[in-house]
Amino acid sequence: DYPTLLLGAPAVIIGIAVLFVLRWRMNLLPLSEDEARSSGVNIGVLRGITVVCATMITASCVSMCGQVGWVGLLIPHICRMKFGSNHLSLLPAAIGTGAAFLIAVDTAARSMTAQEIPISILTAILGAPFFIYLMRRTGGWSL
Fold this sequence. Notes:
Strand content: under 5%
Shape: globular
Structural class: mainly alpha
Oligomer: single chain
Largest sheet: none
Protein backbone atom coordinates (compact mmCIF):
# COMPACT_ATOMS: atom_id res chain seq x y z
CA ASP A 1 0.00 0.00 0.00
CA TYR A 2 1.03 3.63 -0.38
CA PRO A 3 1.94 4.36 3.27
CA THR A 4 4.37 1.43 3.24
CA LEU A 5 5.78 2.59 -0.08
CA LEU A 6 6.24 6.12 1.20
CA LEU A 7 8.09 4.79 4.21
CA GLY A 8 10.44 2.47 2.30
CA ALA A 9 10.96 4.33 -0.98
CA PRO A 10 13.38 7.00 0.31
CA ALA A 11 15.95 4.39 1.37
CA VAL A 12 15.68 2.65 -2.01
CA ILE A 13 15.92 5.91 -3.97
CA ILE A 14 18.87 7.24 -1.95
CA GLY A 15 20.73 3.92 -2.15
CA ILE A 16 20.20 3.59 -5.89
CA ALA A 17 21.15 7.23 -6.50
CA VAL A 18 24.42 6.90 -4.59
CA LEU A 19 25.32 3.62 -6.32
CA PHE A 20 24.39 5.10 -9.68
CA VAL A 21 26.75 8.04 -9.10
CA LEU A 22 29.55 5.70 -7.97
CA ARG A 23 28.98 3.01 -10.61
CA TRP A 24 32.17 3.75 -12.56
CA ARG A 25 34.22 3.47 -9.37
CA MET A 26 32.58 0.13 -8.52
CA ASN A 27 34.69 -1.40 -11.30
CA LEU A 28 37.64 -0.93 -8.93
CA LEU A 29 36.19 -3.15 -6.19
CA PRO A 30 37.67 -6.43 -7.48
CA LEU A 31 41.16 -4.89 -7.59
CA SER A 32 43.70 -5.22 -4.80
CA GLU A 33 44.19 -2.39 -2.31
CA ASP A 34 47.36 -1.16 -4.04
CA GLU A 35 45.87 -1.22 -7.54
CA ALA A 36 42.75 0.63 -6.42
CA ARG A 37 44.77 3.14 -4.41
CA SER A 38 46.95 3.89 -7.46
CA SER A 39 43.80 5.05 -9.26
CA GLY A 40 43.19 7.61 -6.53
CA VAL A 41 40.17 5.95 -4.92
CA ASN A 42 39.97 5.08 -1.23
CA ILE A 43 38.81 1.50 -1.70
CA GLY A 44 37.88 1.02 1.96
CA VAL A 45 35.47 3.94 1.87
CA LEU A 46 34.07 2.81 -1.49
CA ARG A 47 33.45 -0.69 -0.15
CA GLY A 48 31.77 0.72 2.95
CA ILE A 49 29.49 3.02 0.94
CA THR A 50 28.60 0.19 -1.43
CA VAL A 51 27.74 -2.17 1.43
CA VAL A 52 25.66 0.46 3.24
CA CYS A 53 23.72 1.39 0.09
CA ALA A 54 23.11 -2.23 -0.92
CA THR A 55 21.96 -3.01 2.63
CA MET A 56 19.59 -0.02 2.67
CA ILE A 57 18.05 -1.05 -0.64
CA THR A 58 17.72 -4.71 0.33
CA ALA A 59 16.34 -4.07 3.80
CA SER A 60 13.80 -1.59 2.51
CA CYS A 61 12.62 -3.88 -0.30
CA VAL A 62 12.34 -6.89 2.01
CA SER A 63 10.42 -4.87 4.60
CA MET A 64 7.96 -3.70 1.93
CA CYS A 65 7.62 -6.82 -0.23
CA GLY A 66 8.77 -9.79 1.81
CA GLN A 67 11.61 -12.10 1.00
CA VAL A 68 12.36 -12.18 -2.71
CA GLY A 69 15.99 -13.23 -2.45
CA TRP A 70 16.10 -15.06 -5.76
CA VAL A 71 15.88 -11.74 -7.56
CA GLY A 72 19.20 -10.72 -6.01
CA LEU A 73 20.78 -13.96 -7.19
CA LEU A 74 19.29 -14.21 -10.67
CA ILE A 75 19.04 -10.73 -12.11
CA PRO A 76 22.68 -9.66 -11.58
CA HIS A 77 23.89 -12.93 -13.16
CA ILE A 78 21.56 -12.54 -16.14
CA CYS A 79 22.59 -8.92 -16.63
CA ARG A 80 26.29 -9.74 -16.25
CA MET A 81 25.93 -12.39 -18.98
CA LYS A 82 24.15 -9.93 -21.27
CA PHE A 83 25.93 -6.62 -20.52
CA GLY A 84 29.35 -7.67 -19.20
CA SER A 85 31.08 -6.71 -15.98
CA ASN A 86 31.32 -2.95 -16.51
CA HIS A 87 29.18 -1.34 -13.82
CA LEU A 88 28.48 1.67 -16.05
CA SER A 89 26.04 -0.48 -17.99
CA LEU A 90 25.54 -3.35 -15.54
CA LEU A 91 24.02 -1.35 -12.67
CA PRO A 92 21.29 0.42 -14.71
CA ALA A 93 20.51 -2.85 -16.49
CA ALA A 94 20.20 -4.78 -13.21
CA ILE A 95 17.95 -2.09 -11.70
CA GLY A 96 15.64 -2.05 -14.70
CA THR A 97 15.61 -5.80 -15.22
CA GLY A 98 15.00 -6.48 -11.52
CA ALA A 99 12.09 -4.04 -11.45
CA ALA A 100 10.56 -5.50 -14.62
CA PHE A 101 11.01 -9.06 -13.31
CA LEU A 102 9.30 -8.27 -10.01
CA ILE A 103 6.41 -6.50 -11.74
CA ALA A 104 5.90 -9.50 -14.02
CA VAL A 105 6.09 -11.99 -11.14
CA ASP A 106 3.78 -9.88 -8.96
CA THR A 107 1.25 -9.62 -11.78
CA ALA A 108 1.41 -13.40 -12.26
CA ALA A 109 1.05 -13.99 -8.51
CA ARG A 110 -2.08 -11.83 -8.37
CA SER A 111 -3.72 -13.21 -11.49
CA MET A 112 -2.99 -16.96 -11.52
CA THR A 113 -5.55 -17.98 -8.93
CA ALA A 114 -8.40 -16.44 -6.97
CA GLN A 115 -6.16 -16.30 -3.91
CA GLU A 116 -2.91 -14.37 -4.22
CA ILE A 117 0.19 -16.56 -4.30
CA PRO A 118 3.11 -15.21 -2.25
CA ILE A 119 5.64 -13.64 -4.58
CA SER A 120 8.51 -15.39 -2.80
CA ILE A 121 7.11 -18.76 -3.87
CA LEU A 122 7.00 -17.76 -7.53
CA THR A 123 10.48 -16.26 -7.47
CA ALA A 124 11.78 -19.49 -5.88
CA ILE A 125 9.99 -21.65 -8.47
CA LEU A 126 11.58 -19.59 -11.25
CA GLY A 127 14.86 -18.93 -9.50
CA ALA A 128 16.00 -22.32 -8.23
CA PRO A 129 16.05 -24.14 -11.60
CA PHE A 130 17.63 -21.18 -13.36
CA PHE A 131 20.29 -20.83 -10.67
CA ILE A 132 21.12 -24.54 -10.98
CA TYR A 133 21.38 -24.06 -14.75
CA LEU A 134 23.74 -21.10 -14.26
CA MET A 135 25.91 -22.98 -11.80
CA ARG A 136 26.21 -25.98 -14.11
CA ARG A 137 26.89 -23.79 -17.13
CA THR A 138 29.67 -21.80 -15.48
CA GLY A 139 31.25 -24.87 -13.89
CA GLY A 140 30.57 -23.66 -10.37
CA TRP A 141 28.69 -26.81 -9.46
CA SER A 142 28.46 -30.33 -10.87
CA LEU A 143 25.72 -32.84 -10.22
